[in-house]
Design a protein that fits this description.
Elements (H helix, E strand, L loop, with lengths): L6 H14 L9 E4 L2 E4 L2 E5 L16 E9 L8 E8 L13 E4 L13 E9 L6 H7 L3 E3 L3 E3 L14 E2 L15 H28 L1
Parallel strand pairs: 1-10
Antiparallel strand pairs: 1-6, 2-3, 4-5, 4-7, 7-8, 7-9
Length: about 210
Amino acid sequence: MPAAIPPVRCLVFTVIALHLMGTVGFAQGTIHFGNLAILGGVRVVDGPVYAEDGATALLGTTFQAALYAGALGTPVDQLRMIGPAVPFSSVTSAAGYFALSRRVLNENGVQVAPGAPATVQVRVWRLADGLTWEDAVAAGRGYTSSDLLNLPNTGCDACSPASPPALMIGLHFSAPLVPEPSPFSFASLILAAVVTGYHLKRRRQHRSALG
């Protein structure tokens, strides 16, 4: 029986295969959606994602990653989700990374011409905190997003010669998952609201006495 291929090496083979493979027929720009890509033994994309402590790499399908994209220069609040969310690896040696997939930038109102530049962002969240990234943001915990990434060009399968989907070179997460507010922080907010309300009440009473 042949030896099993380590998970990270599988990711490498997948990157190389997808990078060399093209599917003719799409008339929009293409990218490889993934936070790990190794070509020629070099990690050209390496953007692991960490939990709230900033040290524990995300592991397992309870964490999801989604690609948001738009034409070059699109503001962050106008980026749109492209394709389905994908889970993170459940294998310890590949913790922090999610499976690579090929995306065409021609859905959800996004239309990036073949080979044209694009602005993209990866958004990550814990399913326990929301079914979508937006849900987790509304809950105030268990989410993060990469820095905005401007790709100088996307892939073009229908061009002659064809160019492979663009890799997300430069992908980086500046922050881990947003932690749940501590009970102390919540209590501080309540105390601040009570104190503010008290002073506003005293001010109204003082104005009434003067009137």
